[in-house]
Amino acid sequence: MAQTILGIILNGLLIGGIYALVAMGFSLQYGVARVLNLAHGEFIMFAAFSSLSLYTLFGINPLISVVIVAIGMFIVGFALHSTMFRSLLKSSPSPAAFEGSSLLAAFGLLYIIQNTAKIIWPGLPSWATFLAFPIRILGVLILANKVVALSFALVIALAFYLFLARTRMGKAIRAAAEDRATAGLMGINVDSMLALCFGLGAGLAGIAGVLYSMCYGSSTDMGMANTFIAMAVVVLGGLGSVPGAFIGGLILGVISQILRQYAPIFAMPAFYFIFLIMILARPAGILGKR
Amino acid sequence: MNIATLTSKKFLAPAVLVLIVVVLATLPLYISPGTRTLLLDFLMYIILAVAWTMFSGPTGYISLASAAFFGIGVYTPGLLYAEGAPLLPLPVVLAVAGLVAFCCALAVGAATLRLRGIFFTMFSFGLLGAAQPIIQFFEFETHGARGRYVESIGANNVYYLLLIIFVAAMVTAYLLRRSRYGLALQSIGGNEEAAAHMGVDTTRMKVLFFGVSGIFMGITGAMMAIRWHYVDPSIAFNLNYSFLPLLMALVGGMGQLYGPVIGALGFAYLRWVLLSTQYYMLIFGIIMIVFILFVPGGLASLIERGRHRLREVIAKLPKRGETTEHANT
């Protein structure tokens, strides 16, 4: 019994690491760039298939392709923000109007990415995984790829936190999130900070996607579930808070593992229920400031 | 009464609506079943787009829950109007579908519409993901199959019922735009705090009209279940039914009553033409982004600008006539 519980918690934390990465990117994109990226899950799906193709076509190991995919996704995200979302931002009469039009643009993006992926990678979902051999931790058998994924998630989350909290650029990003106009007056290039954050969010989605496909395989329909997970985690941890997204991800990971054990079909309704409770009781999230 | 008052906007909209209804009501007498299928699509998408615009257009609160309400509506006949053993008469089934969707919308609205719009949008997006597994689980538990068959009533009857719902939706949207409730919703979209200070009970207004738009989506869903004779969770709960009404309203233009209608006609037709190419949603996504970037007011704003210019030209015409007359004499 104790072994089962330990197994559930460990496995929950392992998938929670990926959820945390998924949600951190989403949170950053909304928290700083004010874009509710409904296409976030599609970025993850695209990254998952990209790493799969890099492996099957060129034999590139996912542990190396994660870097290539993350950089590629960052460039795509940066370019998207500095063209489409920036021009929307300039033409929007109010911040609320921008939130509306940018999320609609992201909705359009969702269909563009999803259908492009369906054209490039037609056919059934792929269950190919990488490093799927068991290792024993605290007496529980766990697949090695999940451990690799969690270590990746931890390192990246820590690096990210330090980047935002300690570096000059991180300070500039936080200033741009706090008050765009004043940050601009202080000599911060706000436009490029916002594009940088959107790009970093996409890059994080890229990393999450590669790690996800490494552990659980990939399908062209996996995007929406991931976007939804990102939303639930972000509301749990506090909209716009990166540490909150990380902790929320781990919590939701454990909850999803418990459900996976006993009632797998109810994972999404359970997330929705948590979402509802958070919205009713504490809309700012467990770590939220506002 | 002269021509000017007859063509003024006050009479134009109802008159056009009556004319359209008369034409639509007689159409099944002389069209092919294939065309009728297209017409059914037109009506369905118009109702969904108009219903979506009723709430989200003036308030600016973007709802992604259309598919969930539509799906709830689709499932109601699945349970109450099963093939061979309908539990309730059809009008009651439709009323139940509308009522269930209304109550769901009220619940979702009451939970989230007090908060910032972004929470509402996220929550309405999640509704679809939460509802589908529950229904799927229910299907497996109760009769172990994927879906259910629904009693059929004949394509023409479906068409006429849908026409009635279409008229009800258009009339509701028209009256809403002219009423103080419509004005209240507009003011919420303009500046919610100011609206609240002016004495508008903003939360109540938002929740109520989110519910009203949900009714039409639910009833339309129920009609579609009867049209398809078959329902299963993946047919009923499809993100496309959230995306398409929104896309149609956006491209058509939410500023005018006819905006979502022309958007729905255009995209339903485009979908009909492109259906054989599997990935037409890619094209729809691109069109959506192009319109958000370059024509934020939609086609209706272009038409209104054109009409305005035309009126200016017409206003100048008599003057030119006078001068030419003067020159002739």
Gyration radius of chain A, in Å: 19 Å
Unreliable residue runs of chain B: none
Spell out the helices and strands of chain A N to C: HHHHEEHHHHHHH
Number of distinct beta strands of chain A: 2
Shape of chain A: globular
Uncertain residue segments of chain A: none
Count of DSSP-assigned helices of chain A = 11
**Distance between the first and last residues' Cα of chain B:** 35 Å
**CATH architecture assignment of chain B:** Orthogonal Bundle
Main beta-sheet annotation of chain B: 2 strands, antiparallel
Overall outline of chain B: globular
Structural class of chain A: mainly alpha
The main β sheet of chain A shows up as: 2 strands, antiparallel
- Written as H for each helix and E for each strand, in order along the chain, the element string of chain B is HHHHEEHHEHHHHEHHHHH
CATH domain class name of chain B = Mainly Alpha
CATH structural class of chain A: Mainly Alpha
State mean pLDDT of chain A (0 to 100 scale): 87
**Which protein chains make the most extensive interface, counting residues with beta carbons within 8 Å of the other chain's beta carbons?**
A-B, 47 and 39 residues
State the separation between the terminal residues of chain A, measured CA to CA. Answer: 41 Å
